[in-house]
Amino acid sequence: MTITEIRTLPTRHAVTTTDHTATTDDHARLAITVHQPGEPDPSRPLVVLVHGWAASRTVWHATASQLAAAGHTVATYDQRGHASSTAGREPIGVERLARDLDTVVGTLTTPERPVVVVGHSGGGYAALAWAAGLSATGPSANGPSAARGGASVKRLAGLVLVSTASHGQNTPANEVKMMGSKLFSRALGTPWLGRRLLGGTHGPSATLAAREANRRLFAATVPAVRAACFASTQEMDQRAGLAGITAPTAVITGTEDKIVKPSFSQELASALPHAELHRIPGTGHMVPLEAPQHVAHHVHLLVTAGR
Length: 307
Hints:
Strand order of the largest sheet: 1-2-4-3-5-6-7-8
Number of helices: 12
Oligomer: single chain
Distance between the termini: 24 Å
Largest sheet: 8 strands, mixed
Order of helices and strands: EEEHEHEHHEHHHHHEHEHH
Radius of gyration: 18 Å
Helix content: 25-40%
Structural class: alpha/beta
Strand content: 15-25%
């Protein structure tokens, strides 16, 4: 476990963004934005950022901008049912979201290009499931990953897991019901009240801008999607597949995270073969909004290690 000194990334590159769409096997359309430097380096891994429940790809704006200015090509996308992505025909579930990630990777890369996946909260659950699927099937064209678009032949260069866990996220039924209620949605639409209702998702030093951005994202998410997301982890237990994930991994947790408690991050880091735990003092669950520079720093270190 480490508390790392965070250094500002170099900003040598102008950043351009382009929008794309990926279509899944159940006809969900996933909205993607690619952030890249003016002169991208194709030898570097593609970095894919996966947001959590009731958010959108915009939660990564600061992280993606910092990484692209430092020379990395970064993709963000809206998970199914969120923001500009459609819901598709299949219900929301961790394995379904892992297949969506597979579709995004397959749309944006060639099989030869390595990939670094960064998942926050529920995006981390999808990233873990995807990585475990790769390790379970290997490069065989007959494995289930081949049926998902051939991601088994892509090299997973690293994982960054932010405010996430492999198990123990059993949202109570009354909270799931609240997530889908009209009353809760109306309350979220009132700025001061919405920020108060979501106060437990932040650390004590979170800025007003970060708290308001989180409220807006939560309020903009379709209530049924919020409820389905929080219900999807009630039986989640990915511990059996962790030992097979051999990619270098940074596990990041805020010391004040009340949603996914730091003990779960510590357990996750201990179970993964090549993982380091990094704690951010005073930070809550919404690390991409509260401390985006920490995420960018650890992604940059992971991608450039040994170069």
